[in-house]
Amino acid sequence: AMLIFAACQPEKKEILYPRTDLSNAPLIPKPVKTVATHSAFGLDQNTVIKTTSDKGFEKVGHFLSEKIKWQTGLQIPVNDPTKDEPYQRFIYISHADTIELKKPESYQLYIKQDSIFINSSTAAGAFRGVQTLRQLIPEKSNDTLTDHPLWLVPTGKIIDGPRFEFRGTMLDVARHFFTVEEVKKYIDLLAYYKYNMLHLHLSDDQGWRIEIKSWPKLTEVGGSTEVGGGDGGFYTQEDFKELVDYAAERHITIIPEIDMPGHTNAASLSYPFLNGNGKTLKPYTGTRVGFSTFATNKDTVYAFLNDVVREIASISPGPYFHIGGDESHVTPKKGYIHFVELMEKIVRKHGKTMIGWNEIAQADISSSSVVQLWKEKKHALKAAQNGSKIILSSAEKAYLDMKYDSLSTYGLDWAGHIPVDSAYAWNPETYIEGLPKESILGIEAPLWSETISNSPELEYLAFPRAIGYSELAWSIQEHCDWNDYRKRLARHTPYLERMQVNYYPTKLVDWK
Ligand code: TNX
């Protein structure tokens, strides 16, 4: 019997792997520490994934298996004891609580010839580590080393974690509506680059995009318009939850924004008692800003907003609610300040932390509220002095809707042109003179949609610039080097093409 058993064992042949160099892999964002050991792990049909038996880690394992299948066609089982035959190759995704892994999204990735280990103290960290591993799987298999194809992953060790806890982009679904499927594709791309926040700009003068059950006309009336006169659209609460869940599976938080007291023509058109500018309401499909306002002195307006915040907060598991607050040019200053201070109470009552564009710092806001810099640095400095954390979204550096140059097919140019190199080459920690590093929560790159209305147009403006912001937000400053980055970026075309991303092929990068 022993003999028969031995005969059934697959023969363990030594494979002579070609020399690899993990430290030369085109990873974006670049990890904190990389040590190369110059051999390879042969990802193949005999590979299995094993995870800690925690739901979150198990899901990360399934996500990896799905993505390996999508890229290579291999069907890699996850936690399947019937597949535990000898001489398998293993990918272990495990919970571990070492000191290096204290930060919630940190991870370690060890790649040896016969096993890969991803360790983290959180499922979110394991998920980030999985993105690193995905970027290490080559586009083409090696079909000559064995009788079946192997995808050679370079061996070595990566120790990694984020520079900033907040790494976001914003999508304006109000000026033009984007469908659930379009937003999901964007979320997939963001996840690959370790983003953890997607801010959705859900209302503006041109449209209201989220169902509020207690105020149905917001979407019936306010949802039916968009820039240029198209049909608009809106998310039902079920649609929104679907997006929230899809993002959560990728460890991305959706931040809902209702922009107010300005940028509210669509809301006031739906319920005219909200209107505070004294003018006759008409649907608006142009691109001007700063002409609308809620009436900031009416109790009925706040009763309405309490309903809106309550309904949205109840389907938003993340910690934040964004109240907008920008460009309220026709709101009297006193009314604006009163509005922001009252909204902060309403947002807090529904269990959320308030975020607002930098103008909200003119009010007496709590230090727990977050201020998003887009224009006036003095507002950000004032808020930081008061203890608030700042999100950096400066229009001249981080606006995804600015044209690359004068020839750009889409985009605006009021804050200048932002070519791919200048989008990348700035240091968030020194960008605002006098702003302490500890006050910076992170970076967000907003994509306003006056000039774009579908995925290819969105992708033209967001890619490749959003890839650069992911590195500024994740990697240490010493690793943010344009010449090194542009070479790594050039090697991301297989992924971008497989994802059918309509990226802007800037001449500043020697695309492979
Ligand atoms: C300014 S940024 C706005 C938006 C526009 C954007 C266009 C900000 C807080 N307000 O309403 O869409 O410029 O770039």
Automatic annotation (TrEMBL):
GO MF: beta-N-acetylhexosaminidase activity
Residues of the Glycoside hydrolase family 20 catalytic domain: 164-329, 338-475
Keywords: Glycosidase, Hydrolase, Signal
InterPro entries in UniProt: Beta_hexosaminidase_sua/sub (IPR025705), GH (IPR017853), Glyco_hydro_20_cat (IPR015883), Hex-like_dom2 (IPR029018), HEX_bac_N (IPR015882)
GO cellular component entries: membrane
EC number: 3.2.1.52
Domain of life, per lineage: Bacteria
GO BP terms, alphabetized: carbohydrate metabolic process; glycosaminoglycan metabolic process
Broad EC category: hydrolase
Entry annotation: catalytic residues: 327 (proton donor)
Catalytic reaction(s) noted: Hydrolysis of terminal non-reducing N-acetyl-D-hexosamine residues in N-acetyl-beta-D-hexosaminides
PROSITE patterns: PROKAR_LIPOPROTEIN
Beta-hexosaminidase bacterial type N-terminal domain mapped to chain residues: 26-144
PANTHER family per the UniProt record, alphabetical: BETA-HEXOSAMINIDASE, BETA-N-ACETYLHEXOSAMINIDASE
Family to which the UniProt record says this protein belongs: Belongs to the glycosyl hydrolase 20 family.
Annotated protein name in UniProt: beta-N-acetylhexosaminidase
